[in-house]
Amino acid sequence: MTERPKPSADADPTRQALTKVQIDAGQQGMAPISFLAFAKDEPCLCDVFLPVVDPASKAVTMRLICPQGQAFKAEVWDHFSRSGLRGVCVKNLDLPLIFDAMTTRAQEKIADSAVSCPEKAGILKEMASMSVRVMFAASERDAENTELACCLAQRTVGMLLKEDEVLRNLSQLLVSGRTLFDHSINVCLMSLVLGRRLGLDKGRLLCLGLGALMHDVGMARVPAEVLNKPGDLTAEERGLIQKHPRLGHQVLSLAKSMPYDALNVVLNHHERADGKGYPTGVSESSIPYLARLVKVVDAYDAMTSPRPYRAALAPTEAAVMLLNQAGPDLDHAMAVEFIRMHREAFR
Ligand SMILES: [Fe+2]
Predict the structure, then answer these.
(1) Ligand 1 centroid vs 12 CA: distance in angstroms?
(2) Among 71, 92, 113, where does a domain finish?
(3) What is the pLDDT of residues 154-204, one digit of tens each?
(4) Three-state secondary-structure class, residue 274
């Protein structure tokens, strides 16, 4: 029997490309967001479009499904919800309006003691997902959308840190989908919980959450055929993937709201203690603490996720592999604490 390929801590978690819809939306001056940003049966703050792909030409056209001021009808909203179809688009210039409205609604829900913990968690995850989606679709010189996405991410992480009860229920929080967005959210949530256990203060936790949420944004600039390649990569293709920390750091540096320590997480999350990591190959003492933490969580989520080129590991197998790689690659103390945390959360 042929042995299935095993993931390693450095096997990049996120060889998943952006969809054509996301790329085309960006080129058409639009941003992909979740329809959950709109309240059922309430007038829409802006025009809402559904991206439609022509099966023959693969061209993406934007169909107006709800004009500004018109109510997002309950039956359309329910249809989206049932079908699992979450992606609608709005014009870039309408994003600030939508993000502000979402934040206000989220703050109201979070403050409402009648709202359940899973519902609060769902709202915060949706906000996190939206910030990552907009970030992934932003072009490399799109300072405006980059700033907007980072501001939304900052508000979301800030709210998450205030919600003890939400973060305590880690097992209910993690996203089971296996897209790049889901991976980003999982890494953010698990990093925050691990960071708390390791005694980080609020300011550091905020940087940690932001860096973790945006750590793989540079992947949006790696060619889709490389990201989705089912077999082994050539040295040249590996070189392209290894550019993603630097590319992510570059684009996120456009945002004034992205703190220095969070940017450092993005730049250094593939460095190794033995100096064999990338993009720079710096040694352990030069790798920022927060980046080492995200690397442990990133490795675990990568190992336990299926990819087109390999199967997923079971959590116990992943725990063993994390410990095997602790030392030269992963921070040993952090890996041990992460395994403890995970065991308690899923007991
Ligand atoms: Fe990465």
Answers:
(1) 6
(2) 92
(3) 999 999 998 888 888 777 778 776 678 888 999 999 999 999 999 999 999
(4) coil
